[in-house]
Model the fold of this input.
Amino acid sequence: MPARAGLLDLLVAGGEVIDPATGRRGRYDVGLAGGRIAVVEPDVPRQLAAGVFDAAGCLVLPGLVDLHTHIFHGATFWGTDPRPLAWRTGVTTWVDAGSAGAYSAAALEQMSPGFAPLQMSAFLNISAVGLIAETGECRREDLCDPGLCAAVLAEHEGFFAGVKCRMDSATVGEMGIEPLRRALRAAEAAGVPVMVHIGAEPPSIDEVLDLLRPGDIVTHCMTSQTMSLLAPRGGIRRSVVGARERGVLFDVGHGSGSFSFSVAEAMLAAGFPPDVISSDAHQRSILGPCFDLPTCMSKFLALGMGLDDVVRAATSAPALAFSDAEAGSLEVGRRADLAVFQVEEGDFDFFDSELEARRAGPVLVNRATFAAGSLLEPVEPSRPAPWVHLTDAQRALLSRGPETLRRPWAGMLRSRDGYVSYRRSSSSPSARS
Ligand SMILES: [Zn+2]
Done:
């Protein structure tokens, strides 16, 4: 590279780079210029840069890509603002999973520039009303119009990356598997993948998987609900193995009701790790026990998944899943999205969405997040909407200073009481996401 002072806007110096997309692993300096990755070398002279961020002792990762989030805030049941999360989690690319349907697609796309320098993409719900309410969006046949969905995808080409369809009994009712058939028809016409959510049957998991094509995505893949990927007598269902063999992807989508440690352990023991780790961040899940994407990644470290595999599942793998050519890598020339993490040894228990506990192992704590070359500044947490019922512990969490939220689980993960609001009464037909 030419040796000219001020060539680089910033040098992220001395960190341990893990970049699965390029295979780069080791101590590197990463130079940024004009919002792009300009150089990745073991030793870049500091005088070349206008500023230096000392990343010694830290991991330097591509900006994280969260493939399953709900950020259509102020317009939907689940939506939360990504900005109070992004700066302290390293997530620079946010993919909204079906919050908008045809009727609200334009409003979601119009919201996106307001999140800059964060990047945003989305899956369009097969139901024209999207996730404006908690559940039930696919119960009405007239709302699931594949022609309309395909037309809206064509109109907003470049923003929507695929079609979302929730498959569980509360969402589909009498419609059964039909909304998924329609989602696939719309996706086929637009040349994009379908992301299908699984939960409580009917329909059955085998019915769902039989329809999926290479590149389609199953989210909530470690759910303990009746559409579980585990066979009743142990191991992975044959339909699941077949789906992976033909290129169907499996995404975690932790959320508030869709991640079980015991299911995850059984799947990992059977040699079936997730392709993608995502949070399903929404305004209920971000107050625990899900919290955010690095917390989900740390749970997989606790389960024994290797660090490089965990990083791949939250960077290059999700970027590939929705064909984003900019995100998920520190390759020279890419958008300068970087996440700097410290690895701490956890001395507490993590909880899954069933409130089962597992001892934390190495925990990823975000130190800095750069999006398109800019360091993200702290943003106060957003207030949950009136329909989100919080426990005292969750309310206390929101009143802590922004910096302490780099460890949102601290002080909350020692007791189940912090999460009692997630115990659902059997009388309410509550959806899980
Ligand atoms: Zn979701």
Remarks:
- Residues 64-321 form a domain with the TIM Barrel fold (CATH 3.20.20.140).
- The first helix runs from residue 83 to 86.
- The radius of gyration is 21 Å.
